[in-house]
Every structure is written in C-alpha cells, then in structure tokens.
Amino acid sequence: MAPSPARTRRDGGGRSRAAVSSVPQRPSSLRLWLRRRRNLLRPAGLGLLGAGALVAAGLAVMAADPYGRLAALWDGAAEIAASGGLQVKEVTLEGIHNTPPELVREALAVRRGDPMLAFDPHEAKERLELIAWVERAHVERHLPGSIRVRLQERQPFAIWQREGKFSVIDREGKVVATENVGAFGRLPLVVGPGADRAAAPMVDALRGAPEVQERVHALVRVSERRWNLRLRNGADVLLPEGQEPAAITRLAELQKVQGLLDRPLVAIDLRLPDKLVLRLPPGQQPAEQQAPATQRGRSGRG
C-alpha cells in the first residue's frame, strides 16, 4: 500500500507555506526580452531589422509603464545597438561657409562610435539654430551609422558700427559675427543706433547709383530718423528724412553733370527739395544753389 502523500499545513488564508517559500522570483518581461535578444543583437550586421525590434519593444513598454521603465530601456537598447553595429560612423555637413566648425561640433554633441539611437536629431537641430550664423538646420539620422546635417546660413549684408564696436549683420539686421569682422571689409558700413534695422533700403538705393556708391565710406544713421552719407573724401551728404532714395538719385545726377562729389566740400545738404546747400572748408564763403527746375520737379514728387 502506497504511503499517503505528506500533508501541507495551511495558514489562516489557506495558502501553502511550502508554495510561498519555494516559488522563485521571475525576472521581469523587460529583462527577459533584453536577455533573450542580447545575443541576437551583437552581430555586426544588425541593420534595420534589429533597430525596428528595439523601437517596437520600447513602444510596448511605454504603453504598459510609460514612466518607470522607458528611460532604462532606451539606454540599455542604445548600448546593445551600439555593440551590435548601430554606431555613428560618419557625419556629413552641407551648406557650411561662415559658421565656425567648432560650434557645429559642439551643437551636434556626437562622436564617431557613439550609439546611433542615443543621438536625437531634433535636439541637435534646436542647438544648431542657436548659432548666430545658422538660419535653419536640417538634421537626419540614417541607420545604420550616418548623420547628415544641412545648414542654411544667414547671408552677411553689412558691417554695423556702434559705440566703437563692429559687427557683421544680415539683411534683417541680425548680428551674425563680432569676431574676424575684417574678413568682410567689402560690405557696406552702417553707423549708429538703429542703423542695423534700417540699412537694407539704403544699401539697395546706393547699389542703384554706382557713381555715388563708390564714393561712400559709410551710411550714418542720425537720431534713428534719417541718414547721412560719409564720403571717402570726408564730406557729409545730409539726406532728407523719408526721401533718401529720391535724394540719392538727385545726387547721382549732380555727380554726372557737375562732379559734385569730387569737390573739396565739408557737407552737401539735400534736405530742402528746392535748394542745394554746399558747406565749404573754413575760410571760404558758403554756397547755396537753386536746384534746376527738372530737379525741383523730381524732388517734389519724391
């Protein structure tokens, strides 16, 4: 006769003490997944299939426990992916002309051999667009190991002088550089508070009158309301507020007919539409000329 099986004592809740003490603690599903796939992810030919599995697992864990395990999973997955071949192998840059390369490297914050999945292209884009030269940045991550960066830079438009300091600005007046400004010495020079924001129409007007432009040393903003032209010979041309383009056209005609800008003058005052006031060097009599009828008519329309 077979012996009867041993009886197990039950506590007040009816559970077997042997069952409570003998059942081993099972590893979490996350650890099982990582353990089972570690060997599969190690080969160098990991490729897109392995990356897709990592992302799918991450989404599953996010749905089950969006706060507790996601960070740990992503860090672990990035390390596994790196050991399996998903490492940064090359970074290609396009559209970089004036942006300092060291600033680009700092903004990307990635090196060869870093885990590809640990690189966030959106964060890199935001950091790149904080660089003064960069207007827009496009950052792409291409598995298994390539990062592509394309920059759209701001175009240098003029040199702005204020309080003895020089800066390179773009057409909108944004400062893009304060160092090595001498490399942009051929750009127009604009001077004074507010000159940065108001320079574009004046520069355009001068480009339409090359006989005036070639004799201009700087465009000086006066009281943030109007402009003077400082000529290379030291003379100042006083332009009327709000009528600068018309006055520059008038000045170009006077230069063609009379060679006015080449005379030894202290100032040329064009603020009055029907008069041309010339300020001569000390010791000479000031001169005042009536504008020709054609010029008066044009000035009145401007």
Model description:
The chain is α/β, with parallel strands linked by helices. Among the domains are: 90-153, Roll (Ubiquitin-like (UB roll)); 158-301, 3-Layer(aba) Sandwich (Rossmann fold), CATH 3.40.50. The protein is 36% helix and 22% strand. It has helices spanning 17-22, 29-41, 47-64, 70-84, 101-108, 121-128, 195-207, 210-213, 244-258, 293-301; strands at residues 90-94, 134-142, 146-153, 158-162, 165-169, 175-177, 189-191, 216-222, 226-231, 236-238, 267-269, 275-279, 287-290. Strand 5 (165-169) and strand 6 (175-177) form a beta hairpin. The longest helix is centred in the first third of the chain and has 18 residues, at 47-64. The radius of gyration is 37 Å and the shape is rod-shaped.
Give the CA-based shape: rod-shaped
Q: What's the total helix number? A: 10
Strand order of the largest sheet: 6-5-4-7-8-9-10-11-12-13
CATH architecture field of the domain at 158-301? 3-Layer(aba) Sandwich
Q: State the total count of DSSP E strands.
A: 13
Mean of residue pLDDT values: 79
SSE order, as H and E? HHHHEHHEEEEEEHHEEEHEEEH
Radius of gyration: 37 Å
Task: Report low-confidence residues grouped into runs of 5 or more.
Answer: 1-24, 39-51, 68-74, 292-302
Strand content: 15-25%
Q: Quickly give the structural class.
A: alpha/beta
CATH class group of the domain at 158-301: Alpha Beta
> Roughly how much helix do the residues carry, as a percent range?
25-40%
- How far is the N terminus from the C terminus? 125 Å
CATH topology of the domain at 158-301: Rossmann fold
The major β-sheet equals:
10 strands, mixed
Main location: membrane
Function: Essential cell division protein.
Organism: Roseicella aerolata
GO cellular component, one term: cell division site
